[in-house]
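Chapter review: from sequence to fold.
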Amino acid sequence: MLTGKTIILGVTGGIAAYKAANLASLLKKQHADVHVIMTKNAIEFITPLTFETLTVNKCLTDTFDRNFKFEVEHIELAKKADLAIIAPATANVCAKLAHGLADDMLTTTAMACKAPMLIVPTMNTNMYENPIIQRNISTLKEYGYNFVEPASGRLACGDIGSGKLASPEDIVEGVVNLLKYEQDLVGKKIMITAG
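The token string follows.
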């Protein structure tokens, strides 16, 4: 279903980062070309080697990596992407994106990417419900970012509520829905009359 599609998977530093490995695997099984970009905090939860093994692509972690082909990697990857996903998307990365901050490989790539973006917020319930976070999410929606809402249940910290990473299957469904139809009416206003 995703044959020939290039997907960027951004993984940020939350406990749910380990679940992104299953997401990468599911996307690969759909025949997508998956490129993972991890923040430095994500590396504390899961290793780049896991994603490299699952995707057969180098996992990018450092904007200033000197072991590269002579191209600006985050720009080249952003240009060839059909879709970018950030899962899990922490409160920190949502705030950065909402305010145009680009200070690592993931956020610089996201700022350069013209492909559809799918954000999967994942954080503690109190953080997720914080009006500042909700405003950042609203801002991103106004900019045209797409979202898969977090699941509810028992969180890693023991709290119960919204903020769990959506299931990898639900995220893949969101990807397929965004890519299966040409989005040629996005941003257009249409008036339909009945007479």
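Two observations follow directly from the output. The longest helix spans residues 168-180. The chain has a mean pLDDT of 89.
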